Amino acid sequence: MPVLACRPVHDASYFEREYFQLHPGKVKYLEYLVGLLRVHGIPGGRVLDVGAGYGFFLEALEKAGYEADGIEVSPHAAEQARRRTHGQVAEQGAEEPFPFPEERFDAVTLLDVIEHLQDYPAALASCRRCLRPGGKLFVITLNAHSLARPLLGKRWAWHQDPTHIHMFSPRMLREGLEGAGLEVETLKTESNFCSVGEGTKFLKPLRVIGRVVHTPILGDSLLAVARRPR
What we know:
The protein has 230 residues and is an alpha/beta fold. 25% of the residues lie in helices and 23% in strands. Strands 3-2-1-4-5-8-6-7 form an eight-stranded mixed β-sheet, sandwiched between helices.
C-alpha cells in the first residue's frame, strides 16, 4: 500500500500498525479489490500495484490469476512483498519514472498512495505510460468532502499519518487524472467497512458491516477508474 516520500516510511517501525496486518477484514477488502478490477473490465492480465507495501494485494492478485508486479519505496516493505509474489517488486518512489516498459500493464493501482506524493502528476504520467491503450488506472484516496471529516476532526484517518500531503476533492482528483491524459470512467465515493478502524480504533465495531459501501458523495474515500485512450 503506501509509497511515501517522507522519512518515516524507511523506518520499519512505520509498519507496526494494523494497516499493515493481514487481519480478517483486510482479507475481505483484498477480495473486494480483486473484484473491482473484474467489474471494470480487467478479468486478467498484468497489473502493477504502486505502493505495494507488504505485498498482500500482489499475493491476492496472483491467487486470482493475474500477473502482478509492484513498486515500493521502503526496503523493509519491498523485502516482505517479494516473499509473497513471483512478480517484480521495484524498490523506488512513485515519483521516479517507473522501471517498466511502455504499454506493459492492463491495469495499474494506486491504493491509498496518491495523497502521500508531493509530485503526484509525475506518478500519474508514469501510470499512463505503462498502461496499454484501453488499460485502466484505479485510484483510491481519502475524500476531502467525507462526512466523517467534520465529525471526527483530528481523529479522522487523514490526520493519523504525518506523511499525508494532499487531501483530494473529487474535482482535484479528476483534474489530475485528465491532466495526465486519462479518461475518467468512474468517480464516486466509498466507505470501507471491512477494515475500518485501522487508524481510528474506536471505529472498529463498524467492521461488523463487513463490506465496502459506494455512494455518490460524502463517502470516506474517493474511487476513480480512468482509462488510457486507445
